[in-house]
Amino acid sequence: MVLSQEFVSEIERAFPSDFMSRDAELLPVYGKDWTKHHAPNPSAVVFPRTTEEVSRFLKLCSRHRVPVVPSGGRTGLAGAAVAAKGEVVLSLDRMNKLGPVDPLAHTVRVQAGVVTEAVHQHCAPHGLVWPVDFASKGSSQVGGNIATNAGGVKVIHYGMTRQWVLGLEVVTMDGQIHELNGALEKNNTGADLKHLVIGSEGTLGVITEATLKLTRLPGQLDVFFFAVDDMRAVLSLFLEARRAPFPLMAFETLSHNCLEASTGHLKLKPPFASAAGAYVLMEVQRPHSPDAQEALDGWLAGVFEKGLVRDGVIAQSPREARELWMIREGIAESLMSGTRFVHKNDVSVPVASLEEFVARMYELFESRHGELEVYLYGHIGDGNLHLNTMKPEAMDREEFLAKCARADRDLFALVQRYRGSVSAEHGIGLLKKDALPYSRTPGEMALLRAIKAAFDPQGLLNPGKIFD
Ligand code: MLT
Ligand code: ZN
């Protein structure tokens, strides 16, 4: 995309000299995200410091009809932050101020470019946490988390990002600044516009600030890693965990090939000497009671006595707990590392249908897509499965992608049959647009388009994302 000289001159006149960059080293970094989706360089990157600058910039872009891609930590997995047509990237990197934590209201006001982990560190001394947590917390930004309604490993306990946002400051493409809900816990004044923006992947407005809802830091956490026979056993263990006398913080699963990939990549010792059909990482919160240890021990003894698990380890120290978590959280990175080429899917079905769905899914791949090996992991307690396939070394990339596209169609039809979602937590972005009609009816699609047109009638904000 070529920017007109008039547009560039207006920016140079109206904004600080370091507002816009066309540095050849910077452009490719800001135009892409973790998907490594191929894209030309963006035509420029702008780095506003204030909401007022974002507003003036969007107004200028609207006048010149310049499309804009908002950009946070670019850790997304659906391509929502990719400047696919060389658009101008609006980076929130410099908008990274944290306001004071309010210990009475349990809130904190932050700018959108604050890194997720920085929020955790800012709130921890107050005994509070913003419980949005995932492997990319060291680089993902609050605005991006909210724009994609990010999920993660603690959704089973806390819910999605949406549940932890009280208010948003959003700038629409016409430059208007909207304060949506402020810091109100209760506000029944019609449809909640903030919730339209959350999860809209930067297509409706640029999130510039947020009032985050906080909760108390959990007490002592215990981490278990179990080896079980198969998915049926994973779900039997899940039922037992649901009945346990302590809060469940995470209940994750992974197949053996994922365990091998992650421990191999991270050079960690596998927790068990022999291979199992599937594994579970479970984290629980120890109750504040004198007999907590007894309750935990009793529950554990029960799962072994009932034959629900084959083997298990309990983290004996925070370091061991971290290492068990690394096995789970390292899967995504290990499957994308080096020369590996991965095709990702992120689906969900109702928890009650999981066992049947997984059995049908494996049958489907075995009978129709035998050349593709499935790497299965995910947030099983939420009904969310990450279903990855790796390109075999000898297979050509084009051929692999064509096979994945065929397998995807079958997979999405199966997801639809179980009334599931083709994107549980990663979003639609660029990569899952074709899949969207498997989860959204034509009526819903029409509403989504009408909402987009109401917020951004010229279609200049993050164009081509979610739908064309
Ligand atoms: C995860 O659960 O590890 C992330 O969502 C990343 C992924 O699915 O690959
Ligand atoms: Zn995930």
Number of domains: 4
Bound molecules: D-malate, zinc ion
Annotation, overall tally of beta strands: 19
User: What is the helix fraction of residues, given as a range?
Assistant: 25-40%
The CATH architecture of the largest domain is 2-Layer Sandwich
How much β-strand is present in the residues? Answer: 15-25%
Would you give the CATH topology of the largest domain?
Answer: Uridine Diphospho-n-acetylenolpyruvylglucosamine Reductase, domain 3
Could you report the average pLDDT, rounded to the nearest whole number? 97
Overall morphology: globular
**SSE-based structural type:** alpha+beta
Task: Tell me the span between the first and last alpha carbons.
Answer: 18 Å
Estimated radius of gyration? 23 Å
Number of helices: 15
Low-confidence stretches are none
Query: Biggest sheet, open or closed, and with what strands and sense?
Result: 8 strands, antiparallel
CATH domain class of the largest domain: Alpha Beta
